[in-house]
């Protein structure tokens, strides 16, 4: 006797459609979790990078600006004697370090041909130029007479060469000149200051072994668009020629910088600012600087809609969907304090 065979050999169309629908729901849920996780990762990564960029930018600015006007132990009271020829000096030496701070308020996109590389600066931002001396070494022996070459130990931290702007300073005097020659010996370096690059070859006095030699530094901080069209914090070294590596991009994503200057206007200065104002006041009264930068995320499309932000007293709703943060720091000018 033959066994009967079942007539059912597969799934019905309805069963297949139900299975496909359940599969689509499952895949859709997995895709939703993946997209949400990816967006959360993008948000966290961009926020971390934004915070990091803001801290780096403020660190670059505050570290350098604390040195404004430094010229050794006579920083607070000595007006430098400048013999360097302004036409040959790679930095502006008018007034020497008696005017070590230059503020530029609401610059144009072509604020400086050297800094902006044409019209790449971000219009409406602020810029800051400052000067200070970077210490090298003390003089070796006495400097006699006043037109003698300066001698310092070698090697040293400044690597001074011909054409560099150099300072020699003690607690009562400071001279700024252009090095016309800088020999390199095994134990000492001789630095000449002849009249070919200076108004004369005589310093203001005969310095002793207590005097310090410093390399004259001059930098400018500003906001400029990089090659990708993204705003960034840049720094120009005013003491060397402009090249592919000068100015240098420091931190990307910085789209604005606003600076206020704290002026001590008391008849007897006490080192405390009476008010903060934009550039344009008597910069010799400035004892502190308040710097505020606006940093944005590198990626767009992070927020569901444009996120309004408040900066420099105004609330702005951007056209993109980036995240922005404001970083502010007040810097005391150590060499201006009594």
From TrEMBL:
It comes from the Bacteria. The chain crosses the membrane at residues 12-35. Keywords: Membrane, Transmembrane, Transmembrane helix. Pfam families: N_methyl (PF07963), PilW (PF16074). The keyword Membrane applies. This is Prepilin-type N-terminal cleavage/methylation domain-containing protein. The lineage of its organism: Bacteria, Pseudomonadati, Pseudomonadota, Gammaproteobacteria, Methylococcales.
């Amino acid at each position: 006797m033959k066994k009967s065979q079942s007539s059912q050999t597969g799934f019905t169309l309805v069963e297949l459609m139900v299975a496909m629908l359940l599969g689509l729901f499952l895949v859709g849920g997995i895709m939703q979790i993946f997209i949400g996780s990816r967006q959360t990762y993008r948000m966290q990564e961009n926020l971390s990078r934004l915070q990091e960029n803001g801290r780096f930018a403020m660190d670059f600015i505050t570290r350098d600006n604390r040195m404004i006007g430094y010229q050794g132990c006579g920083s607070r009271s000595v007006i430098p004697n400048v013999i360097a020829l302004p036409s040959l000096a790679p930095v502006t030496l008018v007034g020497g370090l008696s005017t070590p701070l230059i503020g530029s308020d609401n610059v144009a996109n072509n604020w400086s041909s050297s800094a902006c590389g044409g019209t790449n600066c971000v219009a409406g931002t602020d810029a800051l130029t400052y000067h200070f001396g970077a210490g090298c070494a003390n003089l070796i022996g006495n400097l006699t007479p006043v037109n003698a070459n300066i001698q310092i130990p070698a090697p040293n931290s400044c690597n001074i060469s011909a054409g560099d702007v150099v300072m020699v300073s003690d607690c009562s005097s400071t001279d700024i000149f252009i090095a016309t020659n800088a020999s390199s010996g095994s134990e000492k370096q001789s630095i000449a200051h002849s009249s070919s690059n200076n108004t004369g070859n005589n310093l203001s006095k005969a310095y002793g072994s207590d005097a310090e030699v410093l390399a004259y530094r001059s930098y400018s901080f500003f906001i400029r668009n990089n090659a990708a069209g993204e705003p960034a914090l840049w720094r120009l070294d005013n003491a060397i020629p402009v090249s592919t590596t000068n100015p240098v991009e420091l931190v990307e994503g910085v789209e604005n910088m606003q600076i206020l200057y704290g002026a001590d206007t008391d008849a007897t200065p006490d080192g405390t600012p009476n008010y903060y104002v934009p550039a344009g006041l008597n910069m010799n009264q400035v004892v502190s600087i308040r710097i505020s930068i606006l940093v944005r995320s590198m990626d767009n499309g992070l927020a569901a809609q444009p996120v309004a932000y408040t900066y420099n007293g105004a609330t702005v709703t951007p056209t993109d969907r980036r995240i922005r943060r404001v970083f502010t720091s007040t810097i005391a000018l150590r060499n201006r304090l009594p």
